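Friendly challenge for the regulars: who can give me the structure tokens for this chain first? No prize, just bragging rights.
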Amino acid sequence: MNGRVASNTSATAFGIALVTASALLIAACAFQRPVPDPARIEQQIAASKAEELDLVRSTIGEPERARRFIDLLAERERIVRALAGQILAHKQQMARLNADYGAERSDFEAQLADYNRQRATGQKALVDLITEMKQTTTADEWAEISAFQLERLDLRKLMYRGLAKGS
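First reply, four minutes later:
Bragging rights claimed.
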């Protein structure tokens, strides 16, 4: 009888382990993201940017202020591309240092300090730009335009697409 109980307990434990492993495998597969299609991402970004330009032209009442805001959007694009380039350069430099057996801690620290300085400068430029964008609009105009930017412009895609292109 005790052999049967032990056998049943082992079979039950094995069954629970099998079900748990299966559930974890299914869950892991369910959360895997498909590989993004770069051409599709570029199309989505281009469509969102075109919508943003249309929104700016229709939201900002004065054509001169609308043109100024569109110029600021071009500057935003330049800053975002520069930030993406910095990330790519940093990633490559860290990989090079990591592969170099002779690289010392001070080499890594110097690289990190340089990257952090560049990143802080880029982020300050972006905050300065946002401040200038706000000054170019009224509160109501800004509310509408910034809501669009938050909802429709995926800044991660804007920023990291430069990494995929190697720019």
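The chain has a mean pLDDT of 81. The two ends are 72 Å apart (CA to CA). Your move, everyone else.
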